[in-house]
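seq as requested:
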Amino acid sequence: MRFRERVRTFPVPLGPERRYTDRLEEFAARHPFLVDVVTVLALMGCAALGTSLTLPGADPPSAARAGTALMCVSCLPLFKHRTHPRTAVAVATVCTVAAVSLGYLVTPMLLAPLMGALYWLAALTDGRTTRVYGIVTVVVMMVAAVFSGAMVHLSLPLRTLGPLFWLLLPLVGGTLTRLRYAYLKAVQVRAEHAERTREEEARLRVTEERVRIARELHDVVAHHLALANAQAGTAAHLALSSPQQTKKILTDLTGTTSSALRELKAALGLLRQNDDADSALLEPAPGLARLSELISACKSAGLDVTVTTEGEPQPLSPGVDLTAFRIVQEALTNVTKHAATEVAHIRLAYSGSCLLITVSNDGPAATPVPEAAPSRGFGVIGMRERAQSIGGELSAGPRPEGGFEVTTALPLQFSLERGIAVTAETMVHTRPAGTADVAHTAEGTTP
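struct tokens:
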């Protein structure tokens, strides 16, 4: 693994020493060639000085210029240490061993080029490469020091421990540098992942809220407009033959439009609301307790609705109560708009911790819809999304004996964790995919 770019970290309070180190790193990142030239020249100077050092009472090597030339040659591959660290270590090792065989004393000054090459090897490569090249280099230099004629006056431990100690220092330093950069890289990756996840979560919440608002407005506008249209058509049909009934229908029409305006105002008021100061002015969310009002409105539009309750009615949480009412409302709206019948049936079955709702009509058999036919509305899609958002299920489609049926199973109590998980999973899928899945049950295909 090579770290060719400096890792950017978040600004944190740093001491003067750390800030000075960061400035040096920034300068090295901006001017790498200049730093390499200065470093290589410094190592050449150390190596040249190392060739002039001898033990007291020992004669200097006869080939002084040859040793200096060898050590200068060992520094040249260091210009390419970023791209070829293994080659730099190999050349420096060969030149240093050759210089030691010529009788030069093994000192830290003489080992400076090799130490620099080992540091960059440990900093720029993986741990396995560092261990292999490091062990081989240390062993070779220890053997060369043991058989060096310039160190015969020293004991065997001194001849072996000296090169071992000085060569292990750059290996440890380079490894720590590599680990530090790996840690900073991991911190950067985690920070980017957290930022990306935060943005994706924000987009998911915005999309979820947009769909929820669209669903609420659809339920309010589509239902009341469908009823108002049916009531107006019925009143026009009975205007001459039954004036009293026409008057009653028109009175109900006024109530329908007033209810639509109230619900629309409440929905839009939630969008404009900045705090909870005006929450008392908003109308409570509807529930199954207002089912009788819904049935009366449908009856004035010419639709006779019967309700059957099975089991002991159980209290519903507010979210489930609203979802149940909206699903029944949308199902009756579809019957009013599309079904060629004047009768609809609502069945509420309480069983354990589940509420089963069935809305059906007795219209004629539906004409089969091609599988590739596009959906012309979002009524069934919205009902399914509502049911899934609280952990329920919904199915809708033509009945074999004729007519259309919507069946949904809802939990009596809404689990917040379960609802959030199901909603998030639902929002991951795009709306076109959901539309294709329910093309044969869209509101536009109801008989």
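Residues 1-17, 276-282, 366-376, 416-447 have pLDDT under 50 and may be disordered.
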